[in-house]
Amino acid sequence: VSQSRYPHTVTLTPTDTSRNALVTAPSSGQAHKINQLIVANIDGAAAVDCTVELRLADGTTYRAIASTISVPADASLIVIDKTMMLYLLDTSVSGEPNTIYVTSGTASKLTYTCSYETLS
To answer: Is the Cβ–Cβ distance between 117 and 7 less than 8 Å?
Structure first.
């Protein structure tokens, strides 16, 4: 079976302290292979908490993979790297994660960068 891979890199600096989608669910029949997720604190003076969650296909259940971790001023945190083998599946696959959400403890202070591949 032939498989196509499409690389992506997304970044987000949330301007609020609510949950924000970083990587959304793949299209039907596709999967996202998450390679890396880095959180950078762009505040030069204060630490800021970050939370990274996976939303399941039911659309209401969230599972934390990093919960209120303090990122020091001018520092970065690697939340996901290639050794984790994390995949997001389309919303038809019950019980599986399909979206990555991020929450910052302070608005406009953390930048989230995620590299991933869409497999189809």
So the answer is: yes
State how far the Cα of 38 lies from the Cα of 61, in Å rounded to an integer: 23
In one-letter notation, the amino acid at residue 83 is: T
Cα–Cα distance, 10 to 115 (Å, whole number): 7
Q: What sections of the chain are H helices per DSSP?
A: none
Per-residue pLDDT in tens (0 to 9) along the chain, 120 residues: 668 999 999 999 999 999 999 999 999 999 999 999 999 999 999 999 999 999 999 999 999 999 999 999 999 999 999 898 899 999 988 899 999 999 999 999 999 999 999 999
Count of CB atoms situated within 10 Å of the CB of 79:
22
Cα–Cα distance for residue pair 80/62, rounded to 1 Å: 17
Query: For the chain, where are the E strands, in sequence order?
Result: 5-12, 20-23, 31-41, 48-56, 62-71, 76-80, 86-89, 97-104, 110-119
